[in-house]
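Structure first, sequence second, as always.
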């Protein structure tokens, strides 16, 4: 029995090709590079992505000059292969090239180009997009620095983009170069550390990055805890400059809480993705461990925020007490100065008929009365602990 050829297959293929062409045309028009004024420099310098071809968990460098199309050809050749690319400083042109090669949804492209995304996980067809944030504590300035990372996954390929041009530990994109004699850059080794896990595909790379980011939260929390202890000592030592430090640390804690909470939501959605795609139990268990670390981290951040709120209340109370003590002293000295001023004002009105006005000892008596009244008031205020 012959198979009937009515042209429907070729029509569907043509429609698919036209749809892909339209999407590429949209990407080119919507995200076309904006011309720079003469003399200006682009915000991001071109840095070549670090790409690895992985076969049965073993990673190797691709041939010199290999393109994204070559990468996908390699990955599609066998089920035990995948491609991993790390973009240290993704440019608009590099993102557009990746979008056209992977036929990415315009929403993913927009998120990657614009950046500044809240941690999230989105799925568009067979492509999974993750946005996560790392955190790094800077001792010199006592600040928490955040960096944004994007992960784009297909069944046999994964791309990691460093949106802030730095690695989790703060290493600049310009330092991602691979030294002679070394097989892989240190950052690449982080993503491809476990050959057994790499056999499980791109989701193992996503796990490695998320795990490294979550592990980086621990030093940040330790730095925040040290700052908080120092602030407590400052508060009770009467340091008036501590209020500014409290507010600054409070903002850092709020930002950290937003980050850990959002990344926790991403991990939970990633867990559901692992289950939906039949990821082996071993990798799911590792991701569950990451979720546990995040849960503990969230609890610690919440404790720090509550504790800092109490410190702020205590500091406000101590400031109010110091202000009250200052007002007591000011009021006491005002009363002491008012007594001689009152006597001087009365005898300075120049009336003729005033007692002791023409008395020979009037002046010494008035001065003595002023002094005695001032000393008496000082003793009263001192005894009442107003002075």
């Amino acid at each position: 029995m012959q198979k009937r050829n009515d042209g429907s297959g070729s029509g569907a293929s043509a429609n698919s090709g036209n749809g892909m062409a339209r999407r590429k045309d949209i990407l080119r028009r919507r995200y076309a590079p904006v011309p720079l004024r003469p003399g200006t420099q682009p915000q991001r310098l071109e840095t070549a992505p670090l790409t690895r071809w992985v076969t049965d968990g073993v990673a190797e460098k691709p041939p010199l000059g290999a393109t994204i199309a070559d990468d996908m050809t390699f990955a599609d050749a066998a089920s035990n292969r995948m491609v991993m690319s790390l973009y240290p400083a993704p440019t608009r042109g590099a993102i557009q090239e990746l979008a056209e090669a992977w036929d990415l949804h315009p929403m993913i492209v927009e998120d990657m180009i614009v950046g500044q995304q809240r941690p999230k996980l989105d799925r568009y067809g067979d492509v999974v997009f993750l946005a996560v944030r790392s955190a790094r504590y800077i001792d010199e300035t006592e600040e928490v620095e955040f960096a944004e990372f994007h992960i784009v996954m297909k069944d046999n390929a994964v791309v990691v983009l460093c949106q802030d041009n730095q690695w989790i530990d703060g290493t600049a994109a310009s330092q991602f170069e691979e030294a002679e004699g070394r097989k892989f850059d240190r950052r690449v080794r982080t993503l491809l550390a476990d050959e057994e896990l790499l056999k499980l595909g791109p989701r193992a790379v996503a796990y490695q990055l998320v795990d490294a980011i979550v592990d980086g939260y621990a030093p940040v929390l330790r730095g925040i805890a040290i700052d908080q202890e120092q602030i407590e000592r400052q508060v009770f030592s009467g340091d008036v400059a501590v209020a500014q430090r409290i507010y600054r640390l409070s903002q850092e804690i709020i930002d950290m809480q937003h980050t850990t909470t959002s990344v926790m939501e991403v991990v939970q959605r990633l867990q559901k993705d692992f289950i939906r795609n039949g990821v082996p139990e071993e990798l799911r268990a590792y991701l569950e461990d990451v979720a546990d670390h995040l849960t503990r981290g969230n609890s610690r951040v919440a404790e720090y925020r509550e504790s800092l709120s109490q410190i702020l209340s205590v500091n406000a109370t101590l400031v109010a007490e110091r202000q009250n003590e200052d007002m007591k002293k000011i009021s006491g000295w005002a009363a002491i100065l008012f007594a001689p001023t009152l006597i001087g004002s009365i005898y300075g009105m120049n009336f003729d008929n005033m007692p002791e006005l023409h008395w020979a000892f009037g002046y010494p008596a008035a001065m003595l009365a002023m002094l005695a009244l001032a000393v008496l008031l000082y003793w009263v205020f001192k005894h009442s602990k107003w002075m």
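Margin note: The beta strands are 50-55, 58-60, 81-87, 120-124, 127-138, 143-153, 157-162.
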